Protein 1
Amino acid sequence: MRIVYRGNHSVSFSTESHIAASLEHLGHEVIRQQENEHSWDATIRACTYGDANLFLWTSTKGYAEKWGCDEERKAADELNATLRTAAVHLDLFFGLQRATWVQECGWFRLRHVFTADGDHEQEFKDAGVNHHWIMPGVYHAECQPGTPRPEFACDVAFVGAQAGYHGEWMPARRALLDFLKKRYGERCKFWPARGAPAVRGQALNDLYASAKVTVGDSCFADTAKTYTSDRCFETVGRGGFLVYPRIPSVVQALEPGQHAAYFPHGDWQGLGETIASYLAHDDAREQLRSAGQEPV
């Protein structure tokens, strides 16, 4: 297929860059349209005169606002009338302030909308969105073991936002972080370090290889049935040993005791016991670490 893909292609680690590379790996042609640089006229021309088979869009709110909601909704309608269209995003929408985007943003008007927000199918339906739930996949080329490095070595690691996270979930995230700090002290390390950029690329694989146990979190992990952060699959796929909130969709994809370990979010005693068990049994932990990569 010939696919025109609008999104943020300016960095190698974006969802768009990973999806585009995956599509090309499968033999498709991808014409990248940088959302904050290409006008909607340019995108429509690329689809119309380039004989595109599909228009694909992953939107970054700050970039999309350059063109205005009215223009993007008009463009979405025009593209829907001429070819297959689809939007894909790994974010959660309902339950957060960004729920208003569902009515405002043009990419929700495309023929098919794929997101990881699978716990709100009725809300999408009520909004007139043809929504499909997808698990948040990760880029296959990054799913390889890392090399342990002394600067990353620790018993317990947490990788993710420690401040400035969604206000609706930040108190729960803070409770998890406080537990890890109080229970493990210097034995637990947090990335990114304060004032430092996010750890990416091969360095992230090396981080996961260096930490004995990585503890994960996901927005609304206490009630979610399907939604999960892509961090769980990224951690396991890159070779980390993961202890993660018990979210049904994740448990079904990564079997407990086979690919990862789980705890009910908020059960800090249970989390501590799970971590202690795997810190005390190196062979079992390393077997799960290795086995988890395969399904990802």
Protein 2
Amino acid sequence: MKLGFIGLGTMGAHMAANLQKAGHDLVVHDMRQGAADPHIAAGATWAVSPQAVGADSEVVFLSLPGPPEVKAVALGDKSLLSGMMSGSACFDLSTNSPTLVRQLHATFVEKGVEFLDAPVSGGPRGAESGKLSLWIGGAEDAFNTYKPVLDAIGDRAAYIGAIGAGSVAKLVHNCGGKSVQCALAEVFTLGVKAGIPPLKLWETIRQGIIGRENPFDNLTRHFLRNHYDPPDFTLRLAQKDVSMALELAREVGVPMRFASMALEEITEAMNRGWAERDARVAMVLQQERAGVHIAVDDDRVDAAVANMAMERAANDN
């Protein structure tokens, strides 16, 4: 298939190379023409503008820094859209704004071009090895049509839903990861300042229940199901433990902004009379503030967990 690829940075260069390895003809463009040299040496064609990429491609992939760059390439001077033909498609691999991708989708569809958001997760090593997740939002029939091409980029291309859904999932993923990162920095500085060497602290915590479980896997037990009774660990005990950690932090002089907010959340839940329910019941408070109610049927959660376990086992093998 004749494919276009715009954006040959750290991630894009690897993804474009994997498309070439899969046997696809590639038309490439980047602000730095030198970035395309390895691809041209492998048989790709250089295009002088996004418009030229669109005119010479059945499907175009974008891998750009963010919303301003995507918008400029899609609709700016010598735009991608101005070169694309009706019946072609564009997949935006960038981490982008759901609002912008919905706007671009509407504009592209007017010309008969499918526009799908397809952010990726796996980092540069995943992009190079092909161990990459792609989260696709847009027309499902277009996803199905081009799934074999997406499989040349990553090993886990999944259809998420309507346009923008992929970008929403990516922002949830990245924001969640960075929030956990900040909280871990906070508690690790507490442990180190309280006298435990950093590596020994990591080795110890890694063997505890939090270290052994993926935080997102843990959501399947109580949060997704809206089941907080009977408790695995009571809210009352959680309040005790976080309070003691903050007391230790005061003794050794470590600021604990994230833990202080967690204690406030736990205390508010305690004031609801939830002391003997599972500690995760405090997560209901945020649902109330957001105006959402999360309660997935047990059978559906169990099936999703089993499916994920099978995928991981297959991937490990």
